[in-house]
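User: Here's a chain of 255 residues. Predict its fold as tokens.
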Amino acid sequence: MTYSILILGGTAEAKALAAQLSTSPDYDILLSLAGRTKAPAEQPVPVRIGGFGGAGGLAAFLREKNVDLLIDATHPFAANISRNAAEAAALAGVDILALRRPAWSRQKGDHWQEVTDIAAAVQALDIAPRRVFLTLGRQELLPFEVMPQHSYLVRSVDPVDPPLKLPHVSYITARGPFSEWDETLLLEQHAIDLIVSKNSGGASSVGKISAARRLGIEVVLIERPRLADVPSARSVEELAGMVRHWKLSRRKRGE
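Assistant: Prediction complete.
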């Protein structure tokens, strides 16, 4: 018996999970990407791109495709998608699991200012001119235009278009992961004295946090939103184990 699994992805963990599960003939896997990146990374399984039209649209898709298991492996800040996934699974009567990677925790040498959202991060920059490294999504950059006195370095997967209306801004287009060594060189090269980042957790983007610790640079860290309360794992390996347990339970019930 083959089980149909829909993975809501866009993260390195989603790709790794899809690759791991695809080695088993027991799973028919489809990976869904939101489509915010113009040139998404190559994936190890079939991919669909685009939204579903909210929880109702996702529930209809789950029914239409006879999905057996929905996996939410989206970004920790994709709160709306996670809520829609939980609601859709309930509406369609489909099992759901989620990947909830651990947040970064403060370590000795960290100079963090933790804030609740983008607006608070903008206000945390203060008035005195700083050299700021923005590591946020393209759609989250506009609020910083109210602070034109700072010099900004912006890194994104796709070009920022249109450019920000700021007098002092430089752009880097690159796709992670980024090592601590590379991030240290980047911060020194641009004389960065403050980083604005989400507390995304995980290993692929922690390099800038480690580099900031090494160099004594301040970090304005945006706290995570509350996500839907569904059965979850903290790592790809743990979640793959949960999927195997789910499969065995289904087979014992003759499903």
